[in-house]
Design a protein that fits this description.
The chain has 308 residues and is α/β, with parallel strands linked by helices. The protein has a domain of 213 residues: Vaccinia Virus protein VP39 (Rossmann fold, 3-Layer(aba) Sandwich). The protein has eleven helices and twelve strands. Strand 4 and strand 5 form a beta hairpin. Helix 1 crosses helix 10, helix 7 packs across helix 9 and helix 10 packs antiparallel against helix 11.
Length: 308
């Protein structure tokens, strides 16, 4: 993968697991739980997660009791992430005294007294995956967590939704929506300029020649879902709010913050619209604030769920 080394990105994804747990919109989650539990089909719930990363969402689906009898497939383009997800799932099962059996074909069966979930984790490019299965795969639930703001929604969302069975559900969480805030202020004008330029990199990002993301994906989702014939049942904010408590930052969230600042540094380091010296000083000061447990970080995001 380009950018940071895979091991650093894996640590970042692990570091934000607890933050995501805190920030996911519980009203939207409860609407998803009600919709899943209202199913009358006796067959296991069939779930596809795109951009599954290191598997934190399948852990969450198991931990929060959404899955009892299910067949979950998670795909991610990064093979390193899939390997990490498999390793994490083994550790997750062991910590809960559940069985995790590797089946023929590479799938796994997670079983406990109250859950029986088949899990398949695959390193695959999203578009290759969709091209490989051109017809309806008839999934019952489509999940995308902190992922839709990395793709071309207009072109890709209809193809994703077409994989759902009639009445199939979608759960799209942590969709970035146009606000990145750091406190304390260093220089109000410079802070705003950096935020604007950073968001612009999201709007102009391309991957393999395709548009890849938007800085206002959250609000744009409503129009794209309507155009694709989907119905939204619940929506709400899921803002990241990271701040130091009496004992500093929770868990590994200081590393998470350093990673965010480094991401901004890489995105804007060669930007001609910024004075390079002032920008380097800004980055250095933000890192110092993290080390001193002073930095507060807020990112505005939206969760959306509904059906097709």
């Amino acid at each position: 993968m380009s950018g940071p080394a895979a091991r650093d990105f894996i640590r970042y994804l692990a570091a934000k697991k607890g933050l995501d747990d805190r920030c996911l919109n519980r009203q939207v989650w409860e609407a998803l739980v009600r919709a899943v539990r209202s199913r009358t089909a006796p067959a296991p719930l069939r779930i596809l997660e795109v951009g599954c990363g290191i598997g934190t969402m399948v852990e969450r689906l198991l931990d929060w009791g959404l899955l009892t009898r299910a067949a979950y497939t998670g795909i991610d383009v990064e093979a390193e992430f899939i390997r990490a997800a498999i390793e994490r799932l083994h550790g997750y099962a062991a910590a809960r005294q559940a069985d995790l059996t590797v089946e023929s074909g590479g799938g796994m069966l997670f079983s406990s007294p109250v859950q029986e979930v088949r899990v398949r984790l695959e390193a695959a490019d999203l578009f290759d995956f969709l091209d490989r299965e051109p017809g309806k795969s008839a999934w019952d639930l489509l999940v995308a967590h902190a992922f839709l703001d990395l793709i071309d929604l207009a072109a890709t969302l209809p193809r994703l939704l077409s994989r759902l069975a009639t009445g199939g559900l979608f759960y799209f969480s942590l969709n970035f929506d146009g606000a990145t805030t750091f406190e304390p202020v260093i220089d109000r004008d410079l802070d705003r300029r950096i935020e604007t330029l950073y968001h612009h990199t999201m709007d102009t990002r391309r991957c393999q020649g395709r548009p890849s993301g938007s800085s206002i994906t959250g609000r744009q989702l409503f129009g794209h879902l309507k155009a694709a014939g989907a119905r939204v049942l619940a929506a709400g904010n899921s803002d990241w709010v990271v701040f130091p408590g009496p004992d500093g930052y929770l868990g590994d969230e200081a590393y998470f913050l350093h990673f965010i600042i480094d991401t901004i540094g890489r995105a804007l380091g060669e930007n001609p619209e910024l004075d390079s010296g002032r920008f380097r000083a800004w980055i250095a000061e933000r890192h110092r604030q993290i080390e001193a447990a002073e930095l507060i970080y807020i990112a505005h995001q939206l969760d959306v769920m509904g059906y097709i």
